[in-house]
Amino acid sequence: MRYINIENIELPKDWEERARKICFFDDFDTLSQEERKERIKTIKGLIEKNSNLWSELKPILAKLSYQKCWYCEMTNLGSNNDVDHFRPKKRIIELKEGHDGYWWLAFEWRNYRFSCEHCNRRRNVETEDGSISSGGKWDNFPILDEDNRAFLPSDSLEKEHPLLLDPINPLDVELLWFDDEGKAVPRISVPDQSSIEYRRACVSIELYHLNHPLRIPERKKIYNRIKRLVLRGNRHYKNLVLNWANSDAQENLKDTVIDLKDLIADDAELSATAKAYIFGFRGKDSVD
Ligand SMILES: [Zn+2]
What distance in Å separates the CA atoms of residue 288 and residue 286, rounded to the nearest whole number? Predict the structure, then answer.
């Protein structure tokens, strides 16, 4: 997961105006309980009929991440990508009853995250050893303290502390790390339930299905590639230390550094994973 700066987005000119017309709730606080129920029902019907509005933004959102899913950082060629509503629009799985979902954010573009179907849609996948790996965010939206859950447009979202890591939050993306076998793990390696950061990383790894059986080997490939490059780079560096005028060694070292930089470039798949692996090799004398 990498930080996505959504402030750079370029929306179609009249998009927000069209969205506001469909999902009107400025007078919601003045409505009676019955009227509120009716309004929510109407808006939910409009949500069903107007999904084209957020689909229209899909290429614009994808452009912000060079077509990579904002959660897993893979392009997942051949699979469908979604515009995920970070706060689910129609229901909350954690609260089977009593919550209508964040319907008032259905047409709020800041609630959209570009996501692959592996991260967004719930599914069970059989692994090589025959066990079942489950994941997919779906309509899950766990928060730290249910007492602070927003139910209405007038409720504060600031008070909610989502457990899911959010790619548009630069602090959140730092909470994920990757082990040498290609698995996503919490960056804070303390299995302490009282650590919120640890818990948030665990919840996100599970719900975004970051350890989907297809992903682990891809990360492992990157690990192996970086290990080879670091070994090669160390060799060239040692040759340079012996003779700083050795132009072959200079060129070779430069090429190796360029190869490493390519792996952490903005448009590289799994660049955050590559960054973590390179970080792990820093200062090590050997890479056995
Ligand atoms: Zn994904």
Answer: 6
